[in-house]
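Archive transcription. Copying these from loose printouts into the bound notebook so they stop getting lost. Printout 1 of 2:
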Amino acid sequence: MRVKRSAAATDPGRRRRHNEDAYVCEPPLFAVADGIGGAQAGELASRLAATALQEDSGPDGGDPRRHVDALIQEANRRVYERQTQDAAASGMGTTITVALVSGDIVWIGHVGDSRAYRVRGGELDQLTEDHSLVAELVRSGKLSPEEAETHPQRSVVTRALGTDPNVDVDTFEIEAKPGDLFLICSDGLTTMVDDETILGEIDRNRDDLRATAKALMRAANRSGGEDNITVVFFELEAGEQQQADEHTLALPPQQEQLASDEDTLDEFDGVKPIAVEEETPRARDRDRRHPLRRGFVFLTLVLVVLIACGFAVWGIWRSHFVGAEADGHLAVYQGIPWNVVGHVRLYRTVYESPLLASQLSEPERMKLFDHSLVTKSSALSEVHRYEREIGR
């Protein structure tokens, strides 16, 4: 099996000034890294990881599984050493999802919540399992998939490169067939568009992978573009892999990527004009006949808003829960774990722990994050207990 063609694209999205994603698109090796730790640190972490892969991407003649694991361990070592030696980079990390084509097998290495998919026979299959807080809560039955989509801490990962000297890597093999199309992407795509939309864009642009990549960027940006968006595609065909495949399409370097793609970044992209109906005398008469109805509807809406505000205030002052900050640190919050329209949070941080969520085992995270610790004292007591146990 060999790579017939490939393409990659990245975009900062509509809400981020910096792009903390990085990718590798060098057949037979492909990868996406999504940085954690803020604009500069996250960008540095993902670039360090991608560079580590690129510098040692050739086949080692041994076990491909071990080779993929070794690549990711080396990337982890570089990020960990940098963040422990450089105060400005302290706390940084990155997700990474790697694919290595070896004969009739595609080897996947995975840490974090970036994803790998395969398209075969008109179906899109998710190959990786998210290492994230909400994914664990869904798997344990504490959250429904629908609740996870809007959970305020859905971006908190429970496993990442750079947080420890060694990292636990999910490594597995996928048996490939001619015509298989693989997609690796950051969560900036999957949190904005669903699988049906991804498959639809792929079907419409299958003959041009670059167009497919750009179409997915536009779809994510239309849905809000709340995070950086990166996609890497590669398609397989029968035959032996060559060092330089003339069918492989690679886009320009990431810093030049999509800078001039106005159709991708145009904030009015996909916005339909609003039709304005001319007011008629009959319409004016109808409006005048129902002033009481309009007033009743208005008062009802005001009452609903006041009740909601009262409930929110009560929740903020009386309720607490344990969660994690965007950088992965455990935290105790006052309020209720909801976001409302405009990303307004109905909670505030009252304590941030030096512990990372990824330092706890999955059962420990399930116990902390099930929202059963509703008082401030109980939440703080449990977090402090883990700090003492793990800090020893």
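Printout 2 of 2:
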Amino acid sequence: MPEQGFNLDGLLRKLVTTGGSDLHLKVGSPPAYRIDGQLQPSELDPLTATDTEELLRQLLPERIKADVEEISDIDFAYGRSEVGRFRINAYRQRGSVNIVVRSVVPTLSTLAELGLPASATSALDEADGLIIVTGPTGSGKTTTCAAMIDQINSSRRVSIITIEDPIEVLHKDKMSIISQREVGVDTPSFKAGMESVMRQDPDVIYVGELRDSETIEAALVAAESGHLVISTMYTLDAIETLRRILDSFPEYLERRTRQMLATTLRSIVSQRLIPKADGEGRTLCIELLVNTEAVSERLVVQGRIDEIAEIMNEGAFYGMQTMDQAIGKKYETGEIRLSDALMNVVSPLDFKLAAGVGQVAAV
């Protein structure tokens, strides 16, 4: 017999206890949990339009006064001390409300525990500059950034200001003092938050996402004027990240943007989570670009960004590696399967040749 009823606390507790990343509440389907990257339907009955609307009413914070019937798309954070903290997105499809709940792990892991090499985190000791963490949805960018902030908080006497949409991980003051501002609550937008943050005496600024040219420019200016800025982008690797930043500006500003990037960029950390060969969870693969003199020289000159990939490929001395190299190491140790490796590398043919499998079919 399927379980009956849609108790909000029960749904959220199961998401946390199973180690799931997301809970999908879709009209016409039973609640489904994403565990280790795979959607797994529950044994509950299919949700009705009335069910999802009632669940959304329970989730909505008091500050949001809109009627459920008027909501077409909304993001907000939800927290229960005895359950956990979650990021909520509710949207309409064919007139009915669907909800996606993302679990935010309340316990902060250290960067070492997450599997980030020291070369990926050394820039956190810098007084200024720009650090960008990239990757697809669900690759752990929020967790990595939270660990970065916690490392600074635990080791430096500085003022940290975050601008987030929504606030996902709550930080307590340790050696640093931290102010966390939420878009839509404390500031109308990332752009507005970045415009005002310079008057708030920050040493370190975390902006949840570089979404548009105005926010990117504000981050570059903040980094250039003596602040350490940490942010994220939904890009797959360092080269795509650099192109996305440059493409955000009109052509007449490209030279200035190149110069600012060459001066302020400290590192780009790109990450992916790939299923382990033993089926027990996923492992983190890290691509790292460090802004060395050779990288900076190519950032300044138009048409030389592609050359940075080769610098990364040969930059082990500085801790650099491409995503294909990172995945190759995991495959060589047997941590991931060939089929999963080939799904995530940039060049599957080159990867198979380098791995010595020739034209062997993925298994």
